[in-house]
Write a structure and sequence with these properties.
Layout lengths: L5 E6 L8 H10 L3 E6 L9 H8 L3 E2 L5 H5 L2 H7 L3 E7 L1 H9 L5 H8 L4 E5 L3 H5 L1 H12 L3 E2 L3 E4 L5 E5 L3 H12 L9 E6 L4 E2 L5 E2 L6 H12 L3 E6 L11 E4 L3 H11 L4 E4 L6 E3 L18 E3 L3 H6 L8 E8 L3 H12 L3 E6 L11 E2 L1 E5 L10 E4 L3 E2 H18 L2
Parallel strand pairs: 1-2, 1-4, 2-3, 4-5, 5-6, 9-12, 9-14, 12-13, 14-17, 17-18
Antiparallel strand pairs: 7-8, 10-11, 15-16, 18-20, 19-22, 20-21
Helix pairs in contact: 1-2, 1-9, 4-6, 5-8, 10-14
Bound molecules: cytidine-5'-triphosphate.
Length: 408
């Protein structure tokens, strides 16, 4: 049952809009409150009156309604929801969401919200397969947007293929599954590092690497969704702060280590950051001028955050998870790295340029697991299929919850 859960349903303009009436009815049956926002195009397919009758609430249609805006309508609508569900999600609204457009109430809400967002795409098969739609969805999923469907089948245009909106019961099951998911990590604190670090050469230049922060941010979001009180310590990235996570922004490895120490004690630490191994030993106070030979930059080693957390004595998290970015002998190097840094688990991924892992949305990983909580046992390895970074994050968070439940 979803008693006391509040779903804000955004209905955009597709022929599948008629099915949302059934979605509302079924959601109400689970005990959830449903409030509807109807786009102008959506109103061509379904009437505000039907939505209002089934949801038993006012239907919101226009961004610039004076009474609603005097109460900051879009902010309030988001605040009073536990989940935003976009159904049907047309190619057009997905594109607007990916680009961050806010030209009506629905898209303004979607840009302003810090609540989880789920989309139920519905469109013609060629629109679904178009590279623009593929890229938009990858962007949205990378930001943590949840997706249900579409399904394969006959469409309103009499074509057959992928793009038909998921059936109402599938959509309702996805919403119920998400909102009623047991908070398996409630009562636990989690620490995640993410992104690259920037190591100053002088006030304008730095050493850095290609890490996007996508994987680490997704892990922080997934742990928070399972109920962990999550602290994300991130180097400079363009990733938005994940909802429900306390984020500390840092630049250098030294700052990252200090922020991680401040976050202790935690039950679990996941080090996904691509921390620079070295930093300029003596960054110049002023901009280094180009006079004469190129400067020699002496480097000094950075602290190893993963190894430091693993060796933190009484403050050691119960489960320390590292990442191993490798370009050759991925598994062997990762296993050696796990032992060397004394972490419990290590996620091995191949980051050679051909894989597109650095900066991309996908990741193919192997999870090397040692025994947790000092229990005896062998090292085991799980080979995961090619997944999105969001899916890797969900799976890893699930494994973490399994391990902590087993050990308690
Ligand atoms: N790591 C860290 N602090 C560092 C370097 C790495 O916390 N100063 C962590 C990363 O977050 C990751 C793991 O150690 O979880 C392995 O990072 P990786 O870059 O693969 O390994 P390195 O230690 O840099 O080893 P090498 O570059 O020799 O492969």
């Amino acid at each position: 049952m979803l008693k006391d859960n509040r779903v804000l349903l955004i209905v955009s303009g597709g022929i599948a809009a008629y099915k949302v009436l059934e979605v509302i009815r079924r959601l109400r049956e689970t005990g959830a409150a449903v409030r509807c926002v109807l786009t102008r195009a959506g109103a061509q397919f379904v009437t505000p009156l039907s939505l209002a009758a089934l949801s038993e609430d006012k239907v919101y249609e226009d961004l610039f309604s004076l009474t609603d805006e005097s109460e900051m309508g879009h902010i309030r609508l988001s605040r009073e929801a536990d989940l935003l569900l976009v159904a049907p999600a047309t190619a057009n609204i997905l594109a607007k969401m990916a680009a961050g457009l806010a030209d009506d109430l629905a898209t303004t809400l979607l840009l302003a919200t810090d609540k989880p967002v789920m989309v139920a795409p519905a469109m013609n098969v060629r629109m679904w397969e178009h590279p623009a739609t593929r890229a938009n969805l990858a962007t949205l999923e990378g930001r943590g947007v949840l997706r249900v469907g579409p399904e394969e089948g006959e469409m309103a245009c009499h074509e057959w293929g992928m793009g038909r909106m998921a059936e109402p019961e599938t959509i309702v099951a996805a919403v119920t599954g998400f909102l009623a998911a047991p908070k398996r990590l409630a009562g636990h604190r989690a620490l995640v590092t993410s992104g690259p670090t920037h190591e100053a050469i002088d006030p304008v230049r730095f050493l850095a690497n290609r890490s996007s922060g996508k994987q680490g941010h997704a892990i922080a979001g997934a742990l928070a969704r399972l109920g962990a009180e999550t602290v994300l310590v991130t180097g400079p990235t363009v990733q938005p702060d994940p909802p429900g996570v306390t984020v500390t922004h840092v630049e250098s490895a030294t700052e990252m280590l200090a922020a991680c120490r401040d976050a202790l004690p935690v039950t679990v630490a996941v080090c996904a950051a691509a921390v620079a191994d070295w930093r300029p030993a003596a960054p110049a106070d002023g901009k280094i001028k180009k006079n004469g030979a190129p400067p020699a930059i002496a480097l000094t080693e950075n602290p190893d955050i993963l190894a430091t957390l693993s060796a933190a004595g009484n403050a050691r998290p119960r489960l320390v998870v590292g990442f191993a970015a490798e370009t050759e002998q991925v598994l062997d190097n990762a296993k050696a790295k796990r032992r060397r840094k004394d972490c419990d688990w290590i996620v091995a991924n191949d980051v050679s340029p051909a894989t597109g892992t650095f900066g991309g949305d996908g990741n193919t990983v192997h999870l090397v697991m040692g025994p947790v909580d000092g229990q005896g046992g062998e090292e085991t390895v799980e080979h995961w299929p090619a997944l999105t970074k969001v899916a890797v994050a969900e799976r890893l968070a699930g494994r973490i919850a399994d391990a902590l439940e087993d050990g308690t």
